[in-house]
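Why show two proteins at once? Because comparison is the fastest way to build intuition. When a single record is shown, students tend to memorize it. When two are placed side by side, the eye starts asking what differs. So, the first record is below.
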Amino acid sequence: MKKNKMKEKILLGDMVFGLGLDSPDPMMVEYAALARLDFVRFDCEQGPYTLESIEHAVRSAEAADIVPTARVSGVESGFVVQLLNRGVSGLTFAHTRTARDAAAAVRSVKFAPEGDRTLTSPSGHGMHARWALGLDAQDAFAFANSETLVVCTIEDPTGLANIGDIAAVPGVDVITFGPNDIAATMGYTGDTMHPEVRKAVRDGIKRATAAGAAVGISVGSRGAEWAADYVEAGARVLQFLPAPLMIDAVARTRADLGV
């Protein structure tokens, strides 16, 4: 496990950029590093990831000096400790609705006394814990607690209503928003550009920022206009989505070429 440069930049108030990956491709991790992004996020909530593929992708991230993170469906997924042991430096928890959800997320990521992450050995150097490679046994657990990143995603009206309480939970580093699920739960399924959805997300960003949280958003093919609006509202962590961006870029290039 390395020093978490993504977390360091967040704490400094800097803009942070990353790439959300739907599939476990180490080459895409390297492309993200070549693009001078700060992090990659492996979608373990909906993507076709295995622990073995995660470990290879993490190795690629470490070699390319880019921070490896992952998204999980929640603390109850049973995947949290296994991902952390593979060397993932940050976790995004989907569908965070309450401060209790956020506190459970933090506890699952941190070793005692800050949490209840389980140990593989007294030194952290057990056979299932490659995260501890290169770390002194006496400092490994404290280092992991200081460098792991916890991200909570707001995806419904309950989460939106509880943003202040969620942001106040110690150990929550970033709050992000899931416009697709927010739109669906507001009755606008598939319409993330609906004015009411955009208003809800923008208001959420402003309230999370006012509560002292760093805020993240994802940017896809139709994202430039509303992303700029959300950045103006206070978003500082931008995750690019390669599939929609590629589809949009190909369409625009073909249009420019007239073919």
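Second record. Ask yourself what differs from the first in the token line.
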Amino acid sequence: MNEDGSRLTTPVYRFVDLTPEELRRIRSQCTWLGSIATALSTAVGALILTCGYGVPSATVATQILTVGLGTVATVMCLLSALTLLTGGRNVRTGRFNAGEAAQARQVTVAYWMMTLLTSTVSALSFHSAVRVDGIAYGHHLEYTAPVMAYLMLLISPLLVATATTVAAHQVLRAPTSVGTR
């Protein structure tokens, strides 16, 4: 602890010695899984932006809200993927930094919660545009194939962020097979 006795401002360094095989495994898993999650979240974001204004909607304001929140959900998903992609830095010195890995896992959970909120509100606002606003403004929109596909597209950042968070928790956990220092 430091002078004021606060545990929050004191850095925690917990290192675990790793074998070269475990080092390569953690680095390669972080790189591969982080790259796949980054590519998926980027593709979903591009699809949400390009398809968002072509899907029928009753009001422009709801459509802007849907596309905007879908984009924010994709950005949160992308940040979670980048956290996993850079997770390999926890094993730079040949030792696993368990404190830094725990922080990375907590960050991915925070990004997952923000993705959950924004993706859910985006999907619900699109559902509102299709059903409630459509009836109120005289546009009777139905759940056609493009509308259903876009609704699933609005939920897909949550699916990618969930997979990324689970992968981060699996890859960045402290190995228990070797001794700690």
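One difference worth noting in the second protein: DSSP finds five helices and two strands in the chain.
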